[in-house]
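S1.2 Input.
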Amino acid sequence: MIAAMASAADPRSGGRGVFSSGVCLGAACQVVSDNYAVTAGTSMAAPMVSGAVALLLAANPALTLPELRALLQAGSRPLEIAPDVSGREGGGMLDVAGAFEAATAPLRGPLEEPDPGASRLRAAGGVVIPDASRSLAVQLWLRDREGVVFDAALARLRVEVRGGELRSPLARTGPGLYTVRVGAPNDAVDSLSRLEVFFDEQPFASIELPIEASAALPVPGVPGVPRAPRSDGGCAFQSSRPPAGVVAPALALGWSVLGAAALRRARLRFRRCKS
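S1.3 Output.
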């Protein structure tokens, strides 16, 4: 993202900071002009999104937080370079003009149709977890041939899930933006889940998501405490507490060892400073 750059932060004159953080090669490669430079990260994204929200509120102070979020997502654009996993695109690229377009988008008539090529269907993750208590959000952005937000009545849309389960019905979450949640049972036998969207009962868009092989693996040395699978194929500890009566001495010991090691390093640093 491009932002204003103070003269003291200009890396060309020895300034150090976010504009000399190594986003690209070269001491001044992030500099766009004498007053602007480019960088990345949440510290850059947060003020951009905050500014977009401020503009929307200036136009309509009555907007609520869910409505603001829906407008930002509904008006977003896809990434110019598609990521290796579509779920990493998230809600898309911020488009302030698109958010205002969504805010004023009319409900399209029955003779109008969205364009499949300009619309997009994205899942929040790369896989479906075979776990009855978990689900994956899938969002649909409708656009017309000109790429303009296409807001349609929910009754014109229908979804089918094969190789998985529909966890929540399709819902309109914003102008031209629709969300559905899918999942898979614990004993899922299919390796692939397919969600298909129909518009006016005609096939419109579809997405295929692999179902992860296992839903609950035991933690070594701690009977009865499951591990939750991650989308990258690894595992992480469940956030819930172990069953009553189950103690995890290995974990407690691990924390004790780490704590002792950290204390020892701190004492060594203190001794070096004194000497």
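S1.4 Remarks. The radius of gyration is 25 Å.
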